[in-house]
Amino acid sequence: FAAYEGVKGGEFYTPSSIVKTIVAILKPFANCRVYDPCCGSGGMFVQSAKFIQAHSGKRGDIAVYGQESNADTWKMAK
């Protein structure tokens, strides 16, 4: 997937097109909680916030929770 999008994947990379599709299916809403058990650099959180903002909400209207075993990647997500 990563090569198809023209980027190099990391340890386990989920392409933004897949993340956008997942977020579009889940349709996060204001005051919801988003949990990503393997959050990586936080792409799911970013796309969820963008989705809410695009649908008349504010980026801060969601609470995000996640974990990441790679400390450097976790710092990027934070």
UniProtKB/TrEMBL annotation:
InterPro entries: DNA_methylase_A-5, SAM-dependent_MTases_sf, Type-I_RE_MTase_Subunit
GO biological process, one term: methylation
Any matching Pfam family: N6_Mtase
Keyword Methyltransferase appears in the UniProt entry: yes
Keywords noted in UniProt: Methyltransferase, Transferase
Coiled coil location: none
DNA methylase adenine-specific domain: residues covered: 1-78
A GO term for molecular function: N-methyltransferase activity
Protein known as: SAM-dependent methyltransferase
